[in-house]
Each structure stands twice: as C-alpha cells, then as structure tokens.
Design goal:
Largest sheet: none
Number of helices: 17
Membrane topology: Multi-pass membrane protein
Distance between the termini: 37 Å
Keywords: Cell membrane, Membrane, Transmembrane, Transmembrane helix, Transport
Oligomer: single chain
Shape: globular
CATH topology: Growth Hormone, Chain: A
Number of strands: 0
Strand content: under 5%
Structural class: mainly alpha
Helix content: over 70%
Order of helices and strands: HHHHHHHHHHHHHHHHH
GO molecular function: transmembrane transporter activity
Subcellular location: Cell membrane
Pfam families: MFS_1 (PF07690)
C-alpha cells in the first residue's frame, strides 16, 4: 500500500475510533453537576458512565453509528436520570460494532513484528477519544450546558461513520478459513489468553474507578475545585498517546512481561500518591496512573494478538468483554466503597486489585508460553 492511501486509511480509522470513544466519558467530569441537577447520590449518577461501559462489555455486534448518535441525542434532551442511564447503556451496546473489528483487521493484515507498535497506536486513538469526551463534557458545561456535548458527539460520530462506510476497503472473506476459527470457549479455556484477559480486567477496574470518582474527590474540601478546573486535570490522559506506542516498542525489546510488571508498579505507586491532598501530587499521580495503565493495556493487547494465531476477531471480542466488564465492576464496587469509606477506601480496593496484573506479569516472565 502506497503512503497516501495508507495515511488516508489511518485517518479514517483514527477518526472513527476517536468519535466512538468520545461518547463514552462525556458525563464523567460533570458527575457532581448531575448529582445536583437530578438530586441523586454519587453512585447513581456514576451509572451514566458505568452503563455505557457495561453495554460495551455485553455487546460485540454488527450495528452502526446511527444508534449511538440517536441515543446520545436522547441523553441531550431527557430530564429523567433513569432514561439517560438507559440511553447510555444502548450507546455501549453499539459502540463495539465501530471499534472491536479494527483490532482484528489489523491482526489479520499486519506482520507480527509491527503488530505491537500498531496496537499501541490504536490505544492512542482510544486515548484521544476518551480525553475528547471528558473535555467536551467538562468545558462545554460552564458556558453552555453539558447537554450540548451530546449533540456535538452525535454529529461527529455520524460524520465519521459515514466516511468510514464509504471509504474503508472491503476485506475478502475465505470460507475455508472461517471453518477453522476456534470457538469462544476454546479461546478462553486456554490459560495463555485467559491471563491476558485478567490483566485487562484488573487494570481497567482500577483506571475507570480513579477517573470516575476523581470529580467527587476534587470538588470536596480541601481542594474544592470548579468543574472546569477538574476537567483540566483530565489532560493528564494525554500521557496515553505517548505511552501506547512506547509500550509496544518496549515489549518488542524486553518482552511484554516487563511492560506488565513495570506498568503495574507505576500504577500502584501513583494510586498511593492520590491519597495526598496536594494538587501538585494529584497531577503527578494522574500522570503516573495514565502511564502505568496504558503501558499495561498496550502490552496486553499486543501480546494477545501475537499469541492468538487464528480467531483474532473472537479473541479481541473476549478482550473487550473482560476489559469493560472490569471497568463496570470497578465503578460499581468502588462507588459503594467510596460512599462508605471515602477516597482512601476506594484506593485500598484498587491497590488490592493490582495484585492480579502483577502476579500475571511475573508468571509471563517465568513461563510466557504456558
């Protein structure tokens, strides 16, 4: 493929992934605002993020951008919190149709020596989308209202989806190859991909919990930050743009196990820093949380697609299932802990969860192919 068509393809894929992920985290920086507007508790309004994550976890189905956009517009006009959460769940059901197949496509078409680096770039595209949604929700709210963020995201994903539909190349399918695809059960019962799924589940449990309850932590004393300043701290999410590709290169050079172990240790240390009341410490902590998490995520998804030689589509669908299921469980469990024991209690739960990727990283180092 020549450079110009390749750049065009990368741009289309990047725009579609970014537009999809923009819809996921729109309400995250304005959760305290939703709490006051709908007269609900912190756990209930957090379901406006958890519901879309649960929907993504449950659905890897061939639907389109139209439903995501329409559900987003419904979120923009409803005055019922239950309906907003339900519409967010519907968005989550349809987002995998726009993103999950891309990872499988890359795995089928790229040589193995480039796969880790390219998967790291794919992770970077999810970073831009995730950050864009947070900035959109948080920065639109002060001058206008958070509802306008949903309208903008709906228009964006409609445009990106239409461009992708018209311009992406069609992949030839071979029936003889499809007959050889392993089943979901055959993939997940193997210990080597299963432990990668557990890494993704445990790490996103921690990451989603930190960023979901961050607004409540920073709005309360002693920080007492306004929504726009809380949103500004989400810029630390940009760390993932650099860490994703870098983690892929480090995995190629030193092995994925080293990336997993080092990512877990950085993530754990950074989680501990969030216990301090200093804003400077919080900024450094969030930078470290992003660096550690995206190192884990890029190493895990790269390792999975190198290890699974057939059935990459199903293998990546299972990865997405466990990844987002971990995020939904994390938001739900840490929300209950946050209500009872505050931020310190939620951090302790997250530190305990990080034992999973740490132990699996050590296992990978000792016996990577067993």
């Amino acid at each position: 493929m020549s450079s110009q068509p390749q750049l065009r393809l990368q741009f289309i894929v990047f725009a579609l992934v970014a537009a999809s992920f923009t819809n996921i985290y729109i309400t995250q920086p304005v959760l305290p605002v939703l709490q006051n507007e709908f007269a609900a508790d912190a756990v209930t309004v957090s379901y406006s993020v958890a519901a879309v994550i649960l929907g993504i976890a449950l659905a890897n189905m061939p639907f389109g951008a139209l439903v995501v956009a329409l559900a987003g517009l419904l979120c923009a006009i409803t005055d019922n919190l239950g309906l907003l959460i339900g519409a967010r769940f519907v968005q989550g059901l349809f987002i995998p149709a726009l993103t999950t197949c891309l990872a499988a496509f890359l795995a089928r078409t790229l040589p193995s020596e480039r796969l880790s680096v390219v998967m790291g770039s794919y992770v970077s595209a999810t970073v831009i989308g995730g950050l864009g949604g947070r900035l959109l929700g948080g920065w639109i709210h002060p001058p206008l209202h958070w509802r306008y963020a949903f309208v903008f995201a709906a228009v964006w994903i409609l445009i990106a989806g239409l461009i992708a539909l018209l311009a992406l190349p069609r992949e030839e399918r071979h029936h003889d190859q499809q007959k050889q695809q392993p089943s979901y059960w055959e993939i997940i019962k193997r210990w080597d991909p299963l432990r990668i799924y557990l890494v993704s589940c445990g790490s996103f449990f921690v990451f989603s919990s930190v960023f979901n309850y961050l607004p409540f932590r920073l709005e309360a004393p002693p920080s007492s930050l306004a929504t726009e300043w809380i949103t500004l701290l989400y810029l630390t999410y940009l760390m993932g743009v650099f860490i994703g590709p870098m983690a892929g290169k480090l995995s190629n050079r030193f092995g994925s196990a080293i990336s997993m172990i080092s990512g877990t240790l950085v993530l754990a240390f950074s989680m501990s820093l969030t216990l301090l009341s200093s804003i400077i410490a919080m900024v450094l902590a969030l930078l470290g949380v992003c660096a550690g998490f995206f190192a884990l995520h890029a190493a895990a998804v790269g390792t999975l697609n190198q290890r699974v030689t057939s059935g990459q589509g199903r293998a990546n669908a299972l990865y997405v299932l466990l990844y987002y299921l971990g995020g939904w469980i994390g938001i739900t469990v840490c929300g209950l802990i946050y209500e009872q024991a505050g931020w310190n209690g939620a951090v302790m739960v997250c530190l305990g969860m990080l034992l999973i990727p740490l132990m699996i990283g050590i296992t990978e180092q000792r016996c990577p192919n067993r």
